[in-house]
Prior knowledge:
By secondary structure, the protein is α+β, with helices and mostly antiparallel strands. Helices cover 28% and strands 21% of the residues. Helix 2 packs across helix 4. The longest helix has 26 residues.
Amino acid sequence: MRTIGGACREWGFFKVVNHGVDPDLMRSARGVWREFFYQPLEEKRRYANSPATYEGFGSRLGVEKGAILDWGDYFFLHVLPERLKNPHKWPKLPSSCREITEEYSKQLLKLCGFLMKVLSLNLGLGEEELQKALGGEEDIGACLRVNYYPKCPQPELTLGISPHSDPGGLTVLYVDDHVEGLQVRKNDEWISVKPTPDSFIVNIADQIQILSNGIYKSVEHRVLVNSSQDRVSLAFFYNPRGDIPLGPFDELVTPEWPALYQPMTYDEYRLSIRKKGLKGKSLGETLK
Length: 288
């Protein structure tokens, strides 16, 4: 717990092994999604996402002429709350994709619930306090974004995903075992994260930085692409309920360390990002 607490304060990122999620399931999930992205474009477009829900298949390849773009395709799915799930957007091919993704999501939810207790205790709070602040286990939001980064002929001209911090609560990332891509910003330098088989990379997102009054760090990160190998990653987002005002815990505000943020709901936060067109840490710093 001390190691995790130090990582959250200094890096905003940590890697977990022996996490209780079945390694065979992890590999199967990555495998079926790789199969999906290898399908013909017309098959993938049957699940094209819409601006209203974002759920489904999307691409950032060649969308804007002359601009530096993210280089990759993605598939976005709602896991919780159930009312947001659209079963028609869950792929039927490969045939096992739905079943494997459901079980993978179930085990990731269990892992996130455990990590929330660790993070809460490390702040000096009760083990359920952080979870309650996000809405409790019944009301949190969870979603999965599967990213596919094809081989890129000129990787120096683009990025897999541009620099950003995650707006929600906690992100659990599963990456390819042998292909590097993720970089974390530390002291104005980009540090590459080396893959470890059967591990997850966990990062603090903006709402937990706010709740912790800046003790835990939501850190800017990006993804590079590769000229010789493609890459698949599964990002699981564990987010607060959208209508609960989130501000620093009273226990973490002192005369020496005053509140850094005014309360704001997660829905309001995301709307601010869209309205202001902010990227990276811009919005988080503005809100201080």
